[in-house]
Task: structure prediction
Amino acid sequence: MSAKKITVAVTRKLPNPVETRLAGLFDVVLNDDDAPLSRAALIERANKADVLAATLGDRLDAAFFAAVGGRLKLIANFGAGTDHIDVAAANARGIQVTNTPSVLAEDAADMAMALVLAVPRRLVEGVRAIESGAFHGWSPTWMLGRRVRGKKLGIIGLGRVGEAIARRAKAFGLSVHYHNRTPINPHVEEELEATYWDSLDQMLAHVDIVSVNCPHTPATFHLLSRRRLKLLQPHTYVVNISRGEIVDETALADLIEDGKIAGAGLDVFEGESPNEKLFRAPNVVLLPHMASATIESRIEMGERVIINIKMFADGHKPPDRVILGLDQDRTPDPA
Ligand code: DGY
Result:
């Protein structure tokens, strides 16, 4: 198949340099106004294209794949997380799925670290105090947070993002603990001076800050359940830049309200919208899913999308294929 003949339907507005490059290489259908496409519009576009450059928010489930005809052969996802795509259903229709791993790990880790600092040090409360006029000069006992240095950070899912967070955490004087299905490479573990916990429950009871970095799969839905959240010590903070579905947010809000958990920094929410209780909970910093939102990462994500489509168009295996039982199980990247 020659690259020029490939039709690529893009579901959302992408950075201009990415769209320009895509248009130079393929026949493209863009979404200039960036409005999320309805199910019917998604299916219509997919049925007229060889490749769908989809992204988070496009629900590509079994019903979607049942409705797309024989032309579509590749979902080139703009993003690392693929929990909005039923990869098994795609593969069953002969459609490959690719994602954009690695390129957003460092930016996502910066934001996780920002939350690790912001919540114990009450950064957002401080900003609000200035804005609301509540600051009337320094006081020895006002706005006291908790020291970060010397604390234990427990990372759930030490993959690319988790490792990038661990490096930052180490530099800030935190000790690194992690829970994965299996321990990471011993050289990396030694370099990070990281402690592996086979038991998530035991790690949760031991650490001072928890960082959620595993992918959202059926197996990790509400991994931080009410029961597990109750294992945390009252001075512990929870940070999540992965997917909201991994944490039972109602339980988290209840436990923070009851003083059983010290606070939380959340960039992601179940169904992408924070529940009411979280808005009201004290010591909570909420961000609008922006951990990987830098222009540099978005352009590099676009480059990965283009590389995957180009390889496919040239008859090769795209490098970032999501392989069930491998990528889905592998610790994580979503940010
Ligand atoms: C991803 O890539 O999955 C992020 O969550 C969006 O930036």
